[in-house]
Design brief:
- By secondary structure, this protein is of the alpha+beta class.
- The chain has 3 domains: 97 residues, Alpha-Beta Complex (Conserved hypothetical protein from pyrococcus furiosus pfu- 392566-001, ParB domain), CATH 3.90.1530.10; 120 residues, Arc Repressor Mutant, subunit A (Orthogonal Bundle), CATH 1.10.10; 54 residues, no CATH class.
- Helices cover 52% and strands 12% of the residues.
- It contains 14 helices and 9 strands.
- The strands form 2 sheets. It has a 5-stranded mixed β-sheet, sandwiched between helices. Strands 6, 7, 8 and 9 form a 4-stranded antiparallel β-sheet that branches.
- It is elongated.
């Protein structure tokens, strides 16, 4: 059996040595353990509010950021004074407004307010294009303005609008046409007119480019037809009073007549007849079209019209004569139109041009 070890009382020297070693290993009153620093930092940054309040604040902050982003992208409607919006900064694709439809729209807005905001953008030249330029909502803006006038300026002073930021003028025109195609389809003539006007105003370099961009979602066959509608506006736009009333087939027949060389005959006929409605206008054009329908194509015309590369905006003189510069693939032409344009005047113009060219 092993002997139990006897406990001995340490000496004074041994106790002193133990105390000194303990003092070396234990932090003094000026030092803190690392865990104390962690606890203090956590207490400093702790949010004393209840968890539900903190969640509400986080949700509100996220909603504010989402609102700012939506507003920057033009997805938030704002109230704009109607007098600060210029409707004709872009040439409108829609030619006329049906008074019966407008009366119905005015009643709806007066009774229920405007359900769908218009679209505008801030042009880079506000001194010329206005503070806000209209993209879409021409009929809605017109109806609100009419209601404002009817109220003596007391009501309908503002209109809800989305302020967009289109990448280019072409993008704004595309947005305008897309909106009208979806809400209330354009007539065949209006589609062609939109493409032709966009070229005349320098938005696109050619009718082909304008049609390809403005009606990119249309089929190849439909784009081909729209190019024909554009030709009708280019050749007869200043003469046709009821162009938007032409059906697709009528537009295509007119375009075929123009390609066959009936442009001047059509213009003279329209100018010399009293036209009161769409039927009168078509009655003037149809005989000229029928005269060339069924005829064999003229080989001298090459089977395809010369492609118009560029056409200047018409210049109207004080005597009602209109001048227009046309560039085709093989040269330039100056087109003169008006009541005073006849063979004698053309001969005088040719003599002047000859004199100028010989002096170069």
């Amino acid at each position: 059996m092993a002997k139990r070890r006897q406990l001995e009382v340490p000496s004074a020297e041994a106790l002193k040595e133990i105390e000194e070693g303990f003092a070396r290993e234990t932090p003094g009153p000026t030092r803190r353990a690392p865990i104390a620093d962690v606890a203090a930092d956590a207490a400093l940054h702790a949010d004393p509010r209840p968890l539900a309040d903190r969640e509400d604040q986080a949700r509100t902050a996220a909603e504010i950021e989402a609102f700012k982003d939506a507003k920057a992208r033009g997805l938030v409607a704002v109230e704009l004074p109607v007098e600060e919006i210029r409707a004709d900064a872009l040439s409108r694709d829609r030619v006329g407004l049906n008074e019966e439809d407008m009366a119905e729209l005015r009643r709806s807005i007066a009774d229920h307010g405007l359900r769908l905001p218009i679209e505008v953008f801030e042009p880079s030249n506000p001194e010329g294009a206005g503070k806000y330029a209209l993209i879409s909502g021409f009929r809605r803006l017109a109806a609100v303005r009419e209601l404002n006038e009817l109220s003596g300026g007391q009501r309908h002073q503002t209109i809800p609008a989305f302020v967009r930021s289109p990448d280019s003028l072409a993008a704004a025109v595309v947005a305008m046409i897309e909106e009208n195609e979806i809400r209330s389809g354009l007539s065949q003539y209006e589609r062609g007119r939109a493409a032709a006007v966009a070229v005349h105003e320098g938005v696109f370099a050619s009718v082909d480019e304008a049609v390809g961009t403005l009606f990119s979602s249309a089929s190849k066959a439909k784009r081909s037809k729209i190019r024909s509608f554009a030709l009708v506006h280019e050749e007869l736009g200043d003469m046709l009073r009821f162009g938007p009333d032409l059906s697709e087939r009528q537009c295509l027949r007119v375009a075929a007549g123009l390609r066959a060389g009936q442009s001047e005959n059509m213009r003279q006929a329209l100018e010399s007849h009293a036209i009161g409605n769409a039927d009168d206008e078509w009655a003037v054009l149809e005989p000229l079209i029928e005269a060339i329908e069924g005829m064999a194509p003229d080989p001298s015309r090459g089977g395809r019209p010369r492609k118009v590369v560029e056409r200047s905006a018409p210049v109207r003189l004080a005597n009602k004569v209109t001048m227009e510069r046309v560039q085709t693939e093989d040269g330039f032409a100056i087109r003169l139109r008006g009541p005073h344009v006849n063979e004698e005047l053309i001969e005088q113009v040719m003599d002047r041009i000859k004199y100028l060219l010989e002096e170069i």
